[in-house]
Amino acid sequence: MGTVAIFGAGVMGETLLSGLLRAGRPVDALVITERRPERAAELTEKYGVRVLENAEAAALADTLVLVVKPQDMESLLEEVAPHVRPGDLVVSLAAGITTSFVESRLPEGRSVVRVMPNTPALVDQGMAAVSGGAHCAPEHVAEAEALLAATGKVVEVPEKLQDAVTAISGSGPAYIFYVVEAMIEAGVVLGMPRATATELVVQTLFGAATMIKETGQHPTVLREQVTSPGGTTAAALRELDDHKVRAAFISAMEAAALRSRELAGG
Ligand SMILES: NC(=O)C1=CN([C@@H]2O[C@H](COP(=O)(O)OP(=O)(O)OC[C@H]3O[C@@H](n4cnc5c(N)ncnc54)[C@H](O)[C@@H]3O)[C@@H](O)[C@H]2O)C=CC1
Ligand SMILES: O=C(O)[C@@H]1CCC=N1
């Protein structure tokens, strides 16, 4: 088994690291790099993983997974580029960063896969989309898929759809947490103790998500089943429509996709 190096062990780097370990990858087949020494020490203590400098890790690894912020990608690529050999695979998880951006900073002909993961990977319920670059064979894409499959579902998409993926499943968990926060606040306004409101909202979210997944029915059908004529749900949904919540979601996700397109430009 080749060595996987994770460059940048923040939220998403740790999520991937812990997922690979849970999936049974030996810790000595993994290394991380991390600019913040206290963060590196924390992860070594927690997982027993080796921490190397970027150049050392690049020289050692066959699979290089880049998990720094888009703004830090340029300088990271400068450090690792001289050490990326022809058979290596470079996997970028950074929002907005295209395969051609990465390829152009590496020696000619290197294999690059762009991935958009999400944080539910932390509980093995991730959703990731992968796209191969110009010098990728199907086995390179399959290798990246296998890495991400350790933490959830993976689909392959044409790279031009990656900004949309970022807006849907990459940022998506944050929209759901926002809705959950709002529903808990509403419960408190209605006189419910916060802990009980939280329990009711979280189980309702879990139940609704499970219904969508397991019944295979369209969300519109499921929503109609809850909406009695002249009842409480109809009263609530009219308020949501009056406040243009559906249109707000579309605008919000268009803004996310636009921001993803901007990020490679710095
Ligand atoms: N957090 C999320 O929900 C998602 C994040 N992503 C992408 O993952 C990437 C990382 O995001 P987060 O983990 O949230 O950010 P983060 O800020 O938590 O982690 C980035 C880590 O990289 C380290 N770092 C920066 N430059 C470095 C360098 N040159 N060498 C070594 N380490 C370096 C930082 O110290 C930090 O710990 C971003 O590009 C983001 O677009 C993608 C999908 C979801
Ligand atoms: O907010 C961001 O830029 C990253 C990408 C997707 C989720 N978080």
UniProtKB/TrEMBL annotation:
Reactions catalysed, as given in the entry: L-proline + NAD(+) = (S)-1-pyrroline-5-carboxylate + NADH + 2 H(+); L-proline + NADP(+) = (S)-1-pyrroline-5-carboxylate + NADPH + 2 H(+)
Key words of the record: Amino-acid biosynthesis, Cytoplasm, NADP, Oxidoreductase, Proline biosynthesis
EC number: 1.5.1.2
Gene3D superfamilies noted in UniProt: NAD(P)-binding Rossmann-like Domain, ProC C-terminal domain-like
Entry keyword Cytoplasm: yes
PROSITE patterns, per database record: P5CR
Domain of life: Bacteria
Compartments reported by the entry: Cytoplasm
Pfam family, one: P5CR_dimer
Pathway recorded for this protein: Amino-acid biosynthesis; L-proline biosynthesis; L-proline from L-glutamate 5-semialdehyde: step 1/1
Pyrroline-5-carboxylate reductase dimerisation domain mapped to chain residues: 159-263
Keyword Oxidoreductase: yes
Function (record text): Catalyzes the reduction of 1-pyrroline-5-carboxylate (PCA) to L-proline.
Family: Belongs to the pyrroline-5-carboxylate reductase family.
Protein name, UniProt field: Pyrroline-5-carboxylate reductase
Organism of origin: Phycicoccus sonneratiae
Higher taxonomy: Bacteria, Bacillati, Actinomycetota, Actinomycetes, Micrococcales
